[in-house]
Structure formats: structure tokens, C-alpha cells
Design goal:
40% of the residues lie in helices and 16% in strands. β1 (4-9), α1 and β2 (62-67) form a beta-alpha-beta unit. α2 (84-94) crosses α7. It has 7 helices and 9 strands, in the order βαββαβββαββαβααα. The radius of gyration is 18 Å and the shape is globular. The strands form 4 sheets. The protein has a 3-stranded parallel beta sheet, with helices on both faces. The chain has a two-stranded parallel sheet with strand order 3-6. The protein starts with a strand and ends with a helix. The chain has helices at residues 39-58, 84-94, 114-125, 144-155, 166-173, 189-195, 203-219; strands at 4-9, 62-67, 70-71, 98-102, 108-110, 112-113, 134-136, 141-143, 160-164. By secondary structure, it is of the alpha/beta class.
């Protein structure tokens, strides 16, 4: 094996840095003191350390990047494991005048279209000066309600957003609404410094492409 890419996740960032939806801190240097909000985040953080330890001790040529919500056609779009863009595109395509959003819709996130994710990975892998960890994501932060509005716009339908959480959510689904952290956004300063490149595609362009693909799957 000549070179290894390890895909970590923004879920490894400390929960206390992601409580403010308007100003989350996901700079690479903020990873410690460690305090991920889930076991998944701890697994990613530990694996980063494992790969970098093999680099130090055995000269394993590794690159480590932290993904921030990658989406696009060909991704999971139903069944409960899909990410927010795919779920909202599916709901918009099936909408009969209302689009249900889990939570209050004020949670903030950034989403990176798959083509730009691939480009960022390739640029990281093709250089030999920087191992990471480094963020791979978009800096275009939106609320989940804004993301839902984009999905509705892509569908060319008229639909209103209905937020559901708290007791209403428990009564309907039988479990607590999975909100996640209040705010998360990629900080690309280090990537731009080392690679001299950054993603430029607007989120809405990717939503249109994703909606069109999911709509075709529903028609099959």
C-alpha cells in the first residue's frame, strides 16, 4: 500500500463548540480538549490518532480529512440513513402542500456537493507536504429550514414547512427528535492555505441536481 486516505468526520468536534447555531467553531485546532457528542465522533477521533501514529512510527503515507455533510446523486435517499439534503428533496418531491422538518429548523449546517468533495480529496492526495487532519466541506452555512426551502424551490411546488419536535414528535414517531448539535460549519482556512483551492458551487445548484435524481428514483 503506497498511500491511504482516511475519511474522518466533523462529528469528532467538541459538542461545546457547536451550541451556538450562528457561530459554530469547527477549526481543526479546536478538536482538543476532545468532547464529541456521540460514540461515532469518538470513533472518528480515535481513528485519526491511530492513522497518524502509524505515520509517525511506521512511515505509513496517510492523509486525513474531516467530511462535512457530503451529498448528491447516487447517495442514500430513503430508509432513515439519508442525510438532510436527500431527505428534504425526497419529501419535497412527495409533498402534498406540506414539508415536515424534524426539529425547530434553526439548526445550522453546511453541505458539500459530491463532485467538489472528490476534487478536494484528489488535491489532498496528490500533494506530499501536508497530512491533515483537514476539513473537507463548504463554508456556505444554512439553517435546516433554509435547506428545506431550497428543496421546495427545486421541486417547483408550493409547500409550507411544518417543524415538528418535542412531545408532538414523540407522539408521532415514538422516540425523541434526533436534533444533533445546534450548529456546525466547515472552516476551510487550512485547506485553502495548503491546497490553494476551495469549493465554489452554490448549495442550491447541488440541491437541484440531487432533487432531479431522487425524483427519477421515485418515478421508477
Amino acid at each position: 500500500v503506497k498511500k491511504i486516505f482516511y475519511s474522518s468526520s466533523a462529528c469528532m468536534y467538541p459538542e461545546h463548540n457547536q451550541l451556538d447555531p450562528t457561530n459554530p467553531n469547527c477549526e481543526e485546532s479546536s478538536a482538543y480538549p476532545a468532547n464529541p457528542d456521540s460514540e461515532y465522533g469518538w470513533e472518528k477521533l480515535f481513528s485519526e490518532r491511530l492513522f497518524l501514529a502509524f505515520n509517525r512510527n511506521y512511515k505509513l503515507d496517510v492523509r486525513v480529512a474531516r467530511f462535512h455533510n457530503i451529498f448528491g446523486p447516487q447517495g442514500t435517499w430513503q430508509g432513515g440513513k439519508e442525510k438532510a439534503p436527500a431527505a428534504l428533496c425526497r419529501k419535497a418531491a412527495q409533498s402534498q402542500g406540506e414539508l415536515e422538518v424534524w426539529g425547530d429548523g434553526q439548526q445550522t449546517r453546511s453541505f458539500l456537493y459530491i463532485d467538489e468533495c472528490v476534487e478536494m480529496i484528489l488535491r489532498l492526495m496528490r500533494q506530499d507536504q501536508f497530512l491533515g487532519p483537514v476539513n473537507i466541506g463548504s463554508e456556505e452555512m444554512v439553517t435546516i429550514n433554509q435547506l428545506a426551502e431550497m428543496a421546495i424551490q427545486a421541486s417547483n411546488k408550493k409547500a409550507v414547512i411544518r417543524n415538528i419536535d418535542g412531545d408532538d414528535f414523540i407522539q408521532k414517531y415514538g422516540f425523541k427528535c434526533p436534533m444533533g448539535v445546534r450548529g456546525r460549519n466547515s472552516n476551510n482556512k487550512i485547506y485553502k492555505h495548503h491546497m490553494g483551492w476551495e469549493p465554489t458551487q452554490p448549495l442550491y445548484d447541488g440541491i437541484i441536481k440531487t432533487y432531479e435524481w431522487i425524483s427519477k428514483q421515485l418515478d421508477k
